[in-house]
Design a protein that fits this description.
Distance between the termini: 50 Å
Largest sheet: none
Number of helices: 5
Length: 110
């Protein structure tokens, strides 16, 4: 999987993950009118993290290809590494959870 290039697609992915995994947070952001800003900021932060790591992956693959003089293998390795990176970034940045409620935070002791 490669990172979606369209901000709208990524923001929709973030929206759906938030809605499914943290519905209370989603409703609060939507109710307060801050949802779109949150989605844009989350996308920005996610892509900043991806871009930094993507550069490191690309440089490493280029160096390995130059040392081994096997550009086809280096390109395949780079594509595989970028795909893995995209999956890791999405898994990290699409993880949400609602804060525990007072009831769920109570001890079962009576």
């Amino acid at each position: 999987m490669l990172m979606p290039t369209s901000p709208k697609v990524r923001e929709e992915m973030i929206r759906q993950a938030l809605k499914e995994k943290a519905p209370k947070m989603y409703r609060e952001l939507e109710r307060s009118g801050k949802l779109e800003k949150f989605l844009g900021e989350r996308d920005w932060d996610m892509m900043e993290a991806y871009s930094q790591d993507r550069m490191a992956v690309s440089i490493k693959a280029a160096e390995e290809g130059r040392m081994k003089k096997d550009w086809l293998k280096a390109t395949r390795d780079q594509n595989a590494a970028l795909s893995q990176l995209a999956e890791q970034v999405l898994a990290t940045w699409l993880e949400f959870s609602d804060p525990p409620t007072a009831e769920s935070g109570r001890s079962s002791k009576t």
